[in-house]
Every structure is written in C-alpha cells, then in structure tokens.
C-alpha cells in the first residue's frame, strides 16, 4: 500500500535548494566585485607608475610619448598585500634626448621589471624603497638618427645578413662613385655604441694609392662612438645588434630602486 508523504516535507527541500542557489549567486557576485576591484586597483597603480616614469624622463632632459604601463600577475590585490609584484612592463615610444648637442632617437624602449618589492605602507605614504630584483630593457636606435650623426650627405645605413651596412656617394679623384660596405658594432667601455667601418669599397675605384687612401680616411671619419641618452632604472647596455628596423639595444640591471629611477 503506497504511503503518501506530507506535502510540507517537500517544501524544506525546495527551500534548501533555493538557499543553495542564492548562496551560489551571491558568491558569483562577490567574485565579480573582487575581480572588478582588482582591475580598478591595477589601473590606479599603472597610472601612478606612468606619472612617475614621465617625471623621471623629464628630469633627464628627454622626451617620449606617454608611457604605457602594465602590471602583470594576478590577482593584483594579493600582490599588494604580499608587497611583491611579479612583473611591471613599461613601454616608451619616440624617446628623444640631446646628447652632446646631437639628437639621438629611440623609436622603441621597452622596460620590464621583475620581482618588484614594495610594502603596502610605502605605496600608501610614498616613503620607503621600491626595489626590483631585475630590470631588462630593449630599445631600437633608428638608422636615420645614426646617419644624421655621421653627417655625410647622401649616406644611408641599413642591415644585411646581420651586419650594419653603409652606402654613400663620393667624388674620388674626379669620379662620382658609390661607397658601400659594412661595420663592426660593439658596446664601448663607456656604454656608447661603437661603429667601426673596416670593409669599404667602391665599384670603379681607380687602382691608385691615393684612391685607396681616400677610402681609408672616409672609413675612419664615419667610425665613431655613438653616445646614448641616459637610460632609466640604471640600465647598462650589454649588446647591440643590427636589425632591419634599426640597431637593437639590450640592457639590464639588478637590485634597482624603481622609485628613484635614473
């Protein structure tokens, strides 16, 4: 004989399911609010860092487009409480500075700071140290700005097979010829970019000592040390490589105080 259960016994189960659904929805809402709060905090931090970087660039007598800052690692608020940030990336565009009277332009300068240590009290008061374990920089020097420094009419620079190339018109012993060749590119002891043109030639060059001497003197005249603008965050240049878009400069630094850059 079938047994009928009271209707009011099913109601608590339905109310229990409604309660669980309500709690689940509430948790989703809280999680969403935390995500929103986390992203808002990231935006505030990125703007503050961007303002500081802009101030430091101005102090160095340089100019650039507004810095693009990205604070990496999630969740951000957990990093704030821990006082350690995984990664901060700063992208600078059209960096220009006057070095010894000559204009040096870096179309791109990307800086990445890793394992940045900053206490919550330091962020709140602005007092104290903000230190990055490592900072890496990657920039590009345009060939146009290098050619302007060499100050030879018609001279152009470029890249071929990983080498820095040069072409320039010249009047050699009454003949209009085109000089071409390659250069060795290294980092000088003072951090400048050393250009050494040791392999120059010109099609149709007369086989005369005077013509060869002209070519040798021309190579020496364009072999210079290119001074770079002071890089932020104590970055020291380690490597320079010719690329199609310009000379790629790689720099790094360790244990860098971010809040006193440059």
Describe this structure in words.
With 262 residues, the chain is an alpha+beta fold. It has two domains: 34-141 and 251-260, no CATH class; 145-226, no CATH class. The chain is 33% helix and 42% strand. The strands form two sheets. Strands 1, 2, 3, 4, 5, 11 and 12 form a seven-stranded antiparallel β-sheet that branches. Strand 11 and strand 12 (246-257) form a beta hairpin. The chain is elongated and about 105 Å long.
Largest sheet: 7 strands, antiparallel
Total DSSP E strands = 12
Please mark out the parts with pLDDT under 50 across 5 or more consecutive residues, or reply none.
none
Give the helix/strand class.
alpha+beta
Number of H- or I-type helical stretches: 5
**Total number of distinct structural domains:** 2
Task: State the share of residues found in helices, binned by percent.
Answer: 25-40%
- Overall, the morphology is elongated
> Which assembly state applies to the chains in this document?
single chain
Could you tell me how far the N terminus lies from the C terminus, measured between alpha carbons in angstroms?
90 Å
**Whole-angstrom Rg:** 30 Å
Beta-sheet strand percentage?
Answer: 35-45%
The helix/strand order is HEEHEEHEHEEEEHEEE
Q: Residue-averaged pLDDT, rounded?
A: 78
């Amino acid at each position: 004989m079938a047994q009928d259960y009271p209707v009011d016994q099913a109601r608590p189960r339905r109310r229990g399911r409604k309660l669980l659904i309500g709690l689940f929805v509430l948790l989703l809402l809280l999680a969403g609010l935390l995500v929103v709060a986390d992203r808002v905090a990231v935006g505030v931090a990125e703007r503050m860092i961007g303002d500081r970087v802009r101030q430091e660039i101005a102090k160095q007598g340089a100019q650039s487009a507004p810095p693009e800052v990205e604070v990496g690692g999630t969740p951000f608020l957990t990093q704030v409480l821990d006082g350690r940030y995984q990664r901060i990336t700063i992208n600078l565009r059209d960096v220009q500075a006057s070095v010894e009277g000559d204009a040096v332009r870096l179309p791109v300068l990307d800086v990445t700071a890793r394992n940045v240590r900053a206490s919550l009290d330091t962020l709140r008061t602005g007092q104290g140290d903000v230190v990055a374990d490592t900072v890496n920089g990657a920039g590009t020097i345009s060939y146009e700005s290098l050619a302007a420094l060499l100050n030879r009419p018609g001279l152009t620079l470029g890249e071929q097979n990983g080498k820095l190339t040069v072409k320039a018109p010249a009047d050699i012993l009454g003949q209009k010829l085109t000089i071409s060749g390659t250069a060795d590119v290294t980092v000088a002891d003072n951090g400048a970019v050393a250009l050494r043109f040791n392999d120059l030639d010109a099609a149709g060059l007369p086989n005369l000592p005077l013509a060869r001497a002209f070519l040798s003197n021309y190579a020496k005249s364009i072999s210079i040390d290119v001074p770079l603008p002071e890089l932020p965050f104590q970055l020291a240049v380690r490597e320079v490589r010719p690329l199609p878009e310009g000379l790629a400069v790689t720099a790094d630094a360790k244990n860098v105080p971010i809040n006193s850059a440059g």
